[in-house]
Amino acid sequence: MxxxxxxxxxxxxxxxxxLMFEEKMMILFNDTVPADLKSISVVHDGDSLTQDIKxxxxxxxxxxxFKILFVGKKANETMKELGHATFNFNGDSHSELPGTVxxxxxxxxxxxxxxxxxxxx
Length: 121
Description:
121 residues, 8-stranded mixed barrel, 3 helices, 15% helix, globular, PTS system, glucitol/sorbitol-specific IIA component, PTS_IIA_glucitol/sorbitol-sp, PTS_IIA_glucitol/sorbitol_sf
């Protein structure tokens, strides 16, 4: 797996985002993030997603790969429109929430401004 099809640079990490990381979640948004969600979000500079994220792809955070196990039916739509989805690092292969992407259960690395988050297949 080395073909990166979507790459974003983190421009801001909300002050409460680490609390979400403790819950094994990362909320990703581009600069359209609503003010009431900004404090819990990882804000990025990415353009619109051009290829759908699929189960079997990998999300790479600071060179650490995470296998994608499930993609909710609305997640690609919101990634294309808002650069937004909720990424749950819980090891589940299903979610009732349509905007959720589930990944293998591993510790989320420290997320900082200017770091790259990418998706590859």
